């Protein structure tokens, strides 16, 4: 579902209160026959009768005049990082646009893999809306607020409506739809873990190699483009990017490697303590960063069946962080092949692995 269809207006809390006052006055006026109360009842009821139609008309005009966009900056961040949600509203028409109200969606974020479609419209207009004064013709305004970043994961914010209120603030109708956005929160990189002494492996820690100049000679697989720097070969220039962005870019290639490092994340459900599981992912992130700095290509898999080949280029490191952000304990695939790879696991998970499997143990 990409948005909301126009729907009938919903009352606000003020509208519900005004409706209660109107009904109370109506009962008293009918029971007593007081002319003054009858006039007061009409005065209260008239705005209630007009407000739904006014809200609908204003919302229809807003949907045709206003363009709403949403973005997260930065789109990827370490858990606990400072991430902002930006909602921009532009009046595309030559007339002033109605005031638009939005509810800050701090509780509407959904972890990827759960239901993230647009929820049904509430019966009442939500309280605590942030109101943007009516926009002048061809003008824009922006809302900026914090995104909850305390949990690891890939989170989606489903599309949600803005609200257009009538002049009395008694009713509101759905306005332009705020589009869906996504935010990724990956674990902070811990120091590269050591291989378990049981397997006879050697420690993986040590001084990191200097960052190599990936793909400057055009070897390997094409993985993207990057800005031109002095010393790049002119044959690598990417002319379409020059025409589009007005700056020089070059094609970026992954370095040729004859052998890949294969790492397997132990994401089996029911065998890890929660804190150790998060520590394991932080250790895996540190190890992947070490491989990236060493210019090594990594085949990263999980015991539940996910797999990705990560080239030692920025795009590969981003892909690794997205994968680590989305890893959750899952049912183990018994046919998963771990041959030729090193399993990254926790102390409790290591005890249930088959004998002879090379492993890196992280956590207490």
Number of strands: 19
**Uncertain segments:** 197-218
Estimate the mean pLDDT confidence: 81
Radius of gyration, in Å, reads 29 Å
Total helical elements: 6
Oligomeric state of the chains in view: single chain
Strand content: 25-35%
What is the CATH superfamily of the largest domain?
Immunoglobulins
CATH topology of the largest domain: Immunoglobulin-like
Helix content: 25-40%
Order of helices and strands: EHHEEEEEEEEEEEEHEEHEEHEHE
Which architecture of the largest domain would the CATH scheme give at its second level? Answer: Sandwich
**Helix/strand/pairing category:** alpha+beta
In one word, what is the shape? Answer: elongated
How many domains? The number is 3
Task: Give the class-level CATH name of the largest domain.
Answer: Mainly Beta
How is this fold's topology laid out?
Layout: E1 10-11, H1 13-32, H2 35-65, E2 66-73, E3 76-78, E4 84-91, E5 100-102, E6 110-111, E7 130-132, E8 140-146, E9 153-157, E10 160-165, E11 171-178, E12 181-186, E13 222-227, H3 239-245, E14 249-253, E15 261-265, H4 274-293, E16 298-302, E17 307-310, H5 314-326, E18 342-346, H6 347-350, E19 359-362
